[in-house]
Amino acid sequence: MNKPIDAALLQPAEAFTDYLKNTAARIDKVAEAKAQEDGARVGISRPHESAHLHVAGEATYIDDIPELAGTLHCALGLSPVANGRLTSVSLDAIRAMPGVVDVLTANDIPGTNDCGSIVHDDPILCAIEKHDDGSSWGDIRYIGQPVFAVIAETRDAARRAAARAKDALIIEAVPPVLTPQDAHARGQYVVPPIHVIRETNDGGARGAIDRAPHKLKATLDVGGQEQFYLEGQISYAIPKEGGAMHVYCSTQHPSEMQHLVAHALHLHANEVHVECRRMGGGFGGKESQSAIFACVASVAAHKLQRPVKLRLDRDDDFMITGRRHCFWYEYEVGYDDEGRVLGVEITMVSRAGHSADLSGPVMTRALCHFDNAYWLPDVAMHGFSGKTNTQSNTAFRGFGGPQGAIAIENILDTVARKLERDPLDVRRINFYGKTENNVTPYKQVVTDNIIHELVAQLEESSDYRARRAEIAGFNLKSEVLKRGIALAPLKFGISFNVKHFNQAGALVHVYTDGSILVNHGGTEMGQGLNTKVAQVVAHELGVNCESVRATATDTTKVANTSATAASTGADLNGKAAQDAARQIRERLAVCAAARHGGDAKDVRFANDKVEVNGRTLSFATVVGEAYLDRVQLWSDGFYATPGLSWDKEKMEGRPFFYFAYGAAVSEVIVDTLTGEWKLLRADILHDAGRSLNPAIDIGQIEGAFIQGMGWLTTEELVWHPQSGKLTTHAPSTYKIPTANDCPPVFNVKLFEGDNFEDSIHRSKAVGEPPLLLPFSVFFAIRDAVSAVADHKVDPPLRSPATSEAILAAITAVQA
Ligand code: MTE
Ligand code: HPA
Ligand code: MOS
User: Fold this and answer.
1) Which of 305, 482, 723, 750 has an alpha carbon 20 to 30 Å from 702's alpha carbon atom?
2) Are the beta carbons of 344 and 333 closer than 8 angstroms?
């Protein structure tokens, strides 16, 4: 570990060189250099604060923390049955295996056997309990459910012993419920159904559909997605004096881990310390689902009074944890001759898995994103979170938003084909208006609509019309290979859809040498949050970014933090850190004016210098003087997003502070004999408001685009229809995109325009919204497939559009 690596290895692969040059060209370096000279530390492209550590292999992830003497390792014994009753657990043989120190069951949990984030329906380990009829059994809910935990001297020994679960468990099996449709047919849900109804005309959606000149009724299937963070789930628990616990956990939500560990150990929150310097990716998968591992490691460390590490193997990670919900939709839409949607009724059923986890809020976000960028006058939406015998599904980049929006996009794409119109024209005619037709189904008024100008710019810069004509000519002459193109717009609501999560705290320390430390409630998962927050602090105090260091997220520094999620990390923590830094700056100004004369209001901080009463001093000098004058050189900061409201009963209010917008044009070529395809070119124009860091934002947009493309094309999850076993539980069978899937032409640009709202330096959240951009890839594939029958037949293409699915759609179109 930590050996410097050969510089040659750091050279990008040849195919990437041009692409990287393009990235550099997309950033206006001259303008940024000028801004920086003028003292700006935001709005400039800074490298990720850990970039050099990442590439050198020196960044410390949880498994890189040197292990304390006496550290034990944990592996989980998993249920081999998807649905049934656990009647007996015999662990003697496992206890006797080499290296095994202990085997824990639910009986070893001193506190509550639950790690559910909202609903308390998530046992840490399956417990055999007495039931009302006098019988005793444990509720087995899915293949991969943890039943016991082996603690051994080595990880290998723990895993070998845990693998014996099959022989240790006696389970009375019943057939599993696996699909959302099956759960829906049985009326079995993890949370009550959610309805969003908006009626502007007589008879609401039903009346509007009945009166419409055209109607369409269909179903759609969209698959789930594995987060596939590079660093798998891991927790390292270290017992402390007086029964306290210190947990290093790869998590997006240290405060929730703290509370769940405290409950499991029957401790107070002030006795549990959770820390996370960085994650090797989270993507939503570590928002709630890091909990079971934090709890098991802590329970073991507590019982044995030795440090315990629980690091999952990739296959176990797939088998135990949930992912993006797959959705099944059934809809009916009424529209006019131009493709204007007049009324739509839709039922969405998700595969929630065995417990609630975040499925309720995910469904709410799905329903609140069905409108995407479109005004839907009359709509009735019904969301059901189907309870199935599968892993409990959870947050994944977009948090239901992509699943909601793809349904309306699919509808509009079909409407366009039925009317033989360009899908872009049908999309555009349905866009929200600027001053009218601008109320969402949940009654938030869209006041910051920029979709018209954004799409117009992209239409032109991507040469959409000319390329469509050229592609039509190509397809006429090409029998086997068909090309397709599509433009997909997006609007994404920013804020947690649970109001009280929209708050954050920060702590800024200025040391007497002028160096600065910032700590905030957000977590770093590669998205560049620490870089952005450090920039905000540097900007506020007028120092160079190099002077500001961000430290590990730590529940003993900032309390009661929200998950770093909903793309709000920089919005919330940036504002909190700005608040802290501003207080220190104001104190410094008062102190400097007292010493050197002039008005505190006129003291200027920029470029590591302080101008006071005509004199220029170094920042460190002013700080040193302030220390001697006994001025407090550290401060906390706080922020709560203003203006939010939500009525859960009526499903209306203002859940979002603002909306982020974007659009993409993708062009594909499909081999109609094999179903293979390639993305030839993608053009993206995305709205990050006044970007805090264009390089990082462009990286987020590119990453989200490719990740979303994987969701919609190659990443297929298959549960065995009888046993219910997830058969795609490793990269050998589950195909995420690789660097080679980047299109050879990839034009990513930031839309120029400030956030209308007073967000941190007028920037916009960027983490999740661009995941919707690759809808354009999916619809370009549909376009190419429909070319097979001269665009007369709407292709019944499911998602993921694997080659197999594409071939099936081609066959259907030809029939
Ligand atoms: N980018 C990287 N590199 N790794 C990640 O795990 N998670 C995404 C997004 N971008 C993620 C990422 C998700 S799901 C969210 S909600 C946001 O980052 C969270 O960070 P932010 O709020 O600071 O943008
Ligand atoms: N996004 C992510 N996590 C959440 C949300 C959300 O909107 N609401 C509750 N948890
Ligand atoms: Mo992101 S799915 O909100 O962690």
Assistant:
1) 482
2) yes
Question: What would the pLDDT profile of 778-798 be if each residue is shown by its tens digit?
Answer: 999 999 999 999 999 999 999
Q: Would 40-62+503-640 and 176-225+322-442 be classified into the same CATH topology? A: yes
Of the given ranges (11-25, 28-42, 328-342, 347-361), which has the lowest mean pLDDT?
A: 11-25
Options 32, 287, 702, 768, the catalytic residue = 768
Residue 24: the pLDDT is 58
Could you confirm whether 716 is annotated as catalytic? no
Question: Residues 436-445: what's their mean pLDDT?
Answer: 98
Tokens 């899937």 locate to 741
**Which of 119, 252, 496, 768 is the pocket-test mutation for ligand 2 (most atoms within 8 Å of CB)?**
496
- 176-225+322-442 classified as CATH 3.30.365.10: yes
The one-character DSSP state at 319 is H
Cα-flanking dihedrals φ and ψ of residue 147, to 5°?
A: -115, -40
Write down the CATH superfamily of domain 70-174+233-311.
Aldehyde oxidase/xanthine dehydrogenase, a/b hammerhead (3.90.1170.50)
Query: Quick check: CB of 252 below 6 Å from ligand 3?
Result: yes
Q: Distance, CA 285 to ligand 2 centroid (Å)?
A: 12
Distance (angstroms) between ligand 1 centre and the Cα of 396 equals 9
Question: In this predicted model, what pLDDT tens digit does every residue of 383-419 receive, in sequence order?
Answer: 999 999 999 999 999 999 999 999 999 999 999 999 9
The reply to whether ligand 3 has any atom less than 6 angstroms from the CB of 711 is no
1: tokens are: 């570990």
| Residues 6+ positions from 661 with CB-CB distance below 8 Å | 373, 449, 450, 451, 454, 489, 490, 491, 492, 686, 687, 751, 769
The reply to whether the predicted model has a pTM over 0.85 is yes
Decide if 242 contacts 271 (C-beta within 8 A): yes
Q: Is residue 234 a contact partner of residue 265, using CB atoms and an 8 Å limit? A: no
